[in-house]
Design a protein that fits this description.
The protein is of the alpha+beta class. It folds into 2 domains: 3-84, Muramoyl-pentapeptide Carboxypeptidase, domain 1, CATH 1.10.101.10; 98-218, Glucose Permease (Domain IIA) (Distorted Sandwich), CATH 2.70.70. Helices cover 17% and strands 23% of the residues. Strands 3-11-7-6-5-9 form a 6-stranded antiparallel sheet, with no helix packed on it. Strands 4-10-8 form a 3-stranded antiparallel sheet, with no helix packed on it. Strands 1-2 form a two-stranded parallel sheet. Helix 1 (17-30) packs across helix 2 and helix 1 (17-30) packs across helix 3. The longest helix is centred in the first third of the chain and has 14 residues, at 17-30. The structure holds zinc ion (ZN). Zinc ion (ZN) binds at residues 117, 119, 121, 199.
Length: 218
Amino acid sequence: MSKVVNLSELYPGAHNDSVLVVQEALAQAVGLDFSSGPGVYGERTREAYAKWQQHLGFSGADADGLPGMQSLKKLGARFGFEVRGEGESGRVPSPVPGHGVTYRYGIQNPRYLAGYHTGDDYASMQGTSVVAVRDGSIQWSNDNGGAYGRWVGLQADNGRVYVYCHLWQRGVITGQQVRAGQQLGKVGATGNVTGPHLHFEDHPPGPFVYAHTRKPAW
Ligand SMILES: [Zn+2]
């Protein structure tokens, strides 16, 4: 399963990717039309969620349209998303869910200034989601990566800085807190590339320094 929903992000007025995943499931489960507010936990979404709770046999305060772990996990099991509770940190197997490394770190190649490939590449279609590999905060998110194109730096809770390069779209802003599995942007081909892929680097803490990398691990 590639999508992750954080329970802590589901509350009236919230606007985030977890809400959007739940709305997509509710559209199938109870016919929610969320075209007027995709990603926004508004009144319609709350009513639709209450219907889902009633469908599960909940009533009264247990069918108030405010998600709890039980009803949310059942929705996820049926419509293909994973649920994370408050304070849980899940293992994210890939920065591009469902995709593996297609060109490895460390391969000697004179095309690169460092003489070797400074990250792992994940080739995939333009628009494929890239996600935070750990909890952390966004150290930078801008279009100024030069050869790296549109890029995002994630300062992770293990002290490392993970760099997501060549993005088509960025979905986070500098300073934002993110959870493991949360979408950061979409795979693209910005900067110096031959085709769409994520170039993913693993750096020590501090400002970005070219080729101060290790084989990506998290
Ligand atoms: Zn690369």
